[in-house]
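thought: fold this chain, then report.
action: predict
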Amino acid sequence: MRTKIPAGYQTVMPYLILKNAIGFIEFTQKVFNAEVLNKHMRDATIIMHAEIKINDSVIMFADSTDQYLPQPAGFFIYVDNADEVYNNALSNGASVVTPMSDQSYGRTGGVKDAFENTWWVTTAV
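observation:
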């Protein structure tokens, strides 16, 4: 039996608990052209719940609290130009996990953003 899923969402979505969720939004907008779907604030600086969309994928997240400690993630993301996105990520505060290289599945490299998430940026062969 198929579960009812709201339009624009996928069956499985990552949910991150982050330090500086507002900074995470800015990073994903600059590097991956993310669209903010919604953002609910606990106060002027703390995100209680937010959602971004990168192409056809939604990521949900919130700021960490004493009750909800940080829970970053690893992402594998297909892009049109892995070298360009990789370098853009580095220009926006990410650090190198693995250098760009040619693999059997495509051009790929890994970066870690300032929020402790790892992004495996790949252009398919």
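thought: worth noting. The longest strand covers residues 95-103.
final: tokens above.
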